[in-house]
Amino acid sequence: MAPSHITLTLFLFIVAVCASEDIKVTRNTYTGFRPTKLFVFGDSYSDTGNNPKSLASSWKTPYGFTFPGKPAGRYSDGRVLTDYVARFMGIKSPLPYRVTKYAPSKLRAGINFAFGGTGVFDTGNFQPNLTTQIGYLQGLIKDSVYTKRDLKSSLAMVTVSGNDYSAFTASGGSQQNLPAFITSVVNQMTIDLKRIHDLGIPRVLVNTLQPVGCLPQLTVLSAYQQCNQTQNSLASFHNQLLQLALTTLNNNTKKSTFLPLDLFTSFNTVLKNKGDITGNLKFDTPLKPCCTATTSTASCGSLDENGKPLYTVCSEPESMFFWDTVHPTQAGWRAVRDSTDGMTDLDDMDDIEMIMQQLQSEQEQQQAAERVHRRNYIYRERFDAEEHLMADYSFKTLLLKPINMSDSTDGMTDLDDMDDTEMIMQQLHSEQEQQEAAERVHRRNISTIVNVSMLKNI
C-alpha cells in the first residue's frame, strides 16, 4: 500500500520520544489538538471487555495472563490497541460500554463501544455492529451524558479488522464476489465515519486492514512459515479504497479530520524484522501464536468435559508477536507501536512555534494557579485576624482547601483492573459514602460561615 500523505497516528508518536514502556508521555506534550476523551468503536483489536462472559474467549484463562494477571475481556495476554492510544493521550483506558451503567461517574475519559467479533455489518455473533455502536454514543449525547464541549475535545478510534470478510466467506461467499463486498464494506465505513464526525468529534482515527494473510489462522497451513499473499492482496484492496474514502472525507471537511492508522505497514514491518525497530523486542517465529489449540476443533481457552485445557501456552508471551490465531500479544502491540516512528500526523506537531505556544500556555496556567494560591493565603490571614471572635471555630482547613463536590472521584481507581461488576459496585458504594461525608462537612462549614457573619455584625 502506498504511504499516505496524512499518515497518522497520535499515539504512535511515542516512539520518537520514548522507546520504554516505563516513560509516561502525556497528551499535552507535543500536539496542538489536546483530546481529553477517547471514544472507541470496532472489534476485538480494541475491545477491552464488552463481550458477554458467557460467550467470549477473552474472559477465559489464559487471556489476561500478562496484564492484569487474569482474564479481563481483552483479546490478548495483556494490553491491546486501545490501551496504548489512551496511554499516549494521558488518560485512563476508557471504560467498556457494558459496565458504564454501574459507574456513571467514571466516564470522563470516554467510553469503549467496541465488541469483539463484530464488523461493519452483522457478522453472526449477535453483538452490535459498527452502526449500532455509534448509536449508543448518540443516545448518550441525547441524554446529555456528554456535552458539545466534551465532544469537541475528544478523539474517536475505529477498528475494522476483517470480521466482515470472515463472515462473508463462512456464509458461502465466493472469492469472485469478494471485491464487490469489500467495496460495500468500505462504503458503509465511510457513512459511519462521517456520522461520528457529525456528532461533534473533531478527529476520527481508523485503522487500515492488517495483512490478514499473515494471521496464524492461515499461516498454520505452512507450519507458520509464510503468509498467504492472496489474502494480503485483498487487504491491500480494502486499504486502497479506504484511503480514497478518507481523502474524500477530508476534502469535504477541508481539514485532516479522518486519520488512517496504518496497521498494514506496521504489522508487515514487525513480521519482516522479527521484532520492533528498537531491537528491544525479538520474535523468532513471528507467524506462530503463543496460545495454540491441541485439537482441530478447539481454540485458545477451550476446555474438555473434565475441565482440562485443550490448548498450550508458550513460556514467554513477550517473545511472541501473536497471542492466538488472530490477535497480537501485548508485546506484539507494543512492537506495532514502536515500528511506526515515521507515521506521525505532523499537522499538529511539526511547528516549533506551536510547541512554544503550548509551553507558554502551561506557564500562564501555572501563574494563574499561583495567583489563586496567594489570594487564598490572604483570605486565610484575614480570617485568622478575626479568629478571636469565633470561640472554638477553626477555619484553617476550610480556607486552605475549599470544599469542591466535583472532586469526590478524583482518586478513582484505574478501571483497567475492574473487569468485574461486583468490584465496580463496591467502588460506587465507597464513593457514595465518601460523598455523603463530604456533604456533611460542607453543611457544617456553611453553618460556620453563617455564624461568622453573625458575629461580625454584633
Q: Mind telling me the CATH superfamily name of the largest domain?
A: SGNH hydrolase
Q: What do we call the CATH topology of the largest domain?
A: Rossmann fold
CATH class of the largest domain: Alpha Beta
Helix content: 40-55%
Summed up, the helix count is 13
Judging by the overall fold, what is the CATH architecture of the largest domain?
3-Layer(aba) Sandwich
Distance between the termini: 82 Å
Beta-strand proportion: 5-15%
Strand order of the largest sheet: 2-3-1-4-5-6
For the largest beta-sheet, the strand count, sense and barrel status come to: 6 strands, parallel
Poorly predicted regions are: 1-31, 341-357, 383-422, 452-458
